[in-house]
Amino acid sequence: MWLRVGSLQLHLGVVDEAPSAGPGFPHFALYVPTDEFDATIESVRAAGVKMLGEPSSRVDFGTPVRAAFITDPSGNAIELTDVGPLSRA
Fold first, then answer.
1. Is residue 62 a contact partner of residue 70, using CB atoms and an 8 Å limit?
2. Residues 13-72: tens digit of each pLDDT
3. Distances (CA, A) of 31 to 15, 35, 51, 67
4. What per-residue confidence (pLDDT) applies to 66?
5. Pairing state between β 27-31 and 77-81
6. How far apart are the first and last CA of the chain?
7. For residues 57 and 7, is the Cβ–Cβ distance under 8 A?
8. For residue 67, what pLDDT is reported?
9. 2-5 and 8-11 strand pairing
10. 14 — phi, psi (to 5°)?
11. Could you tell me how far CA 9 lies from the centroid of its own chain?
12. How many other CB atoms sit within 10 Å of the CB of residue 11?
């Protein structure tokens, strides 16, 4: 369930069992300013960081969202997104 709380989004997942590790799950998200998103993705690629697919775009609650998933050296998934704590809502 995704809820809007003021200008923030709260993403909740209720499951009987935690999903097994796979592309994108479980993960946490890091904010990358929109005007730095493309350059950040290129820097990540140039550094040899593993990408879990290509960056994508979507609209959440009327707000455009850009996101890309990467993995850290331990294999943990991290979402890079341009929607931060003070989103453009």
1. no
2. 666 665 555 555 677 788 899 999 999 999 999 999 989 889 999 888 788 889 998 888
3. 26, 12, 16, 9
4. 94
5. parallel
6. 18
7. no
8. 92
9. antiparallel
10. -115, 120
11. 12
12. 9
